Amino acid sequence: MRRRFVTRRLGAVFRLVGVFCIIFSASMIPPMLVSLWYADGEARHFLVSLGVSSLVGLLLWAPGAVAPPELRRRDGFLVVALFWTVLSALGALPFILGPHVGFVDALFEAASGFTTTGATVLSGLDALPKSVLFYRQELQWFGGMGLIVLAVAVLPALGVGGMQLYRAEVPGPMKEDRLTPRLRQTAQALWLIYVGITGACALAYWFAGMSLFDAVAHSLATVSTGGFSTHDASIGYFHSPAVEIAAIVFMFAGGINFSVHFLALRAGSLRPYWHDVEVRAFLLFVAGVVGFCTVALYLYDFYAAFPALRNSAFEVVSIVTSTGFGTADFSQWPAFLPVLLIFVSFVGGCGGSTAGGMKVMRLLVLTREAVREVRRLVHPHAHYALRLGDRVVEHRVAQNIWGFFAVYVATFVVLMLLMMLTGLDQPSAFSAVATCMNNLGPGLGQVAYDFASVSTAGKAIAVFAMLAGRLEVFTLLVLLTPDYWRE
Hints:
Helix content: 55-70%
Number of helices: 22
Number of strands: 2
Distance between the termini: 12 Å
Order of helices and strands: HHHHHHHHHHHHHHHHHHEEHHHH
Mean pLDDT: 85
Low-confidence stretches: none
Structural class: mainly alpha
Strand content: under 5%
């Protein structure tokens, strides 16, 4: 009886993963149409990928077709982990069939796109087929908000158990917060806002001077904070202040909690942005780092005053939101600035955004908790509530954040040591793991431009780091504990 129960639960899990694979197969249609429009000869590769993805989805769905759709919270972790792993593998097919890269390189590129990391093993982007370039951007856009959130929005079958998937998928410490009373409506609202901001970004790029193809392609990577570009020189290819300003605005939009976007739209005012303690801290932090880098670059005679401000503003916003676009090679900046920017990537954007990193909300709680402990040393019998604005942070939430911080750092150290075992020097290993776990893209040293020279083992470690960072570590690590598999 117990074995039959476990089999039925796994059948339900595989059933959902199969549904997601079938949904994902539809993502091959837009690049197929782009291929036909530009006659670049890649349409057949996307057609094959569509067929394989659909077949895999059917094979996973069929055994669990009669299984109950209800999911427990623990099942949500397995669904999400399988979802990101299986779809990264399926997403590698067009790279294997098109640019003809090896499986590990193709998996790296697909996982980097899907997790919105933006690191790449490809070079000569300007000469690649338009459809392949568009597919890379599309992967990031779907990964930014998450196909699971999309599925919760559009599939009534996920109405039961959807919260378990939502909690395991959405980044940030406050996963129980909803915009609307019904979870499905919340997911729909998130995707409508996401689509709307992407459309506005594409128009802004087009008006700033990009071609229509580049405008649409870069809007997909900007709002998702992914960072893939259709050009080797990234945003620097355009040499346009207008393009850079548009990128900064919409990278910021991607790095802000989409719940706050919803509140601002509903109120018809910008006040919710400043009233939200996390967004306010995020804006002040970015402004402070931009000012510091601008002064440092000017004092070291690296740039004149205005170019120092222009490049600092773009690079800091790009890195703190984990987008990874570039107009300048920050790895060549003087003194400690390159390392500072890598550390900035650990902060990341707001919870509930498309940005990577540990999230501003968590670091705010850790900072307030540290201040509270210092005050307790002075007044040991006093009671100090842990507050963020008008909100009292529950002890359980604070404990969860401390646990996340400890596991995040420990995972980072282990992966960095493994990277060094593959042959990378210490600075390169440090930045490689940082850029993958924080879903950033560019690094320092050997990985300053791409991961092409990294060994196969190193790329495999990087893929795990990307997935761990996108799923905020716990979703993957909980599956490695014996308790998870005990009924």
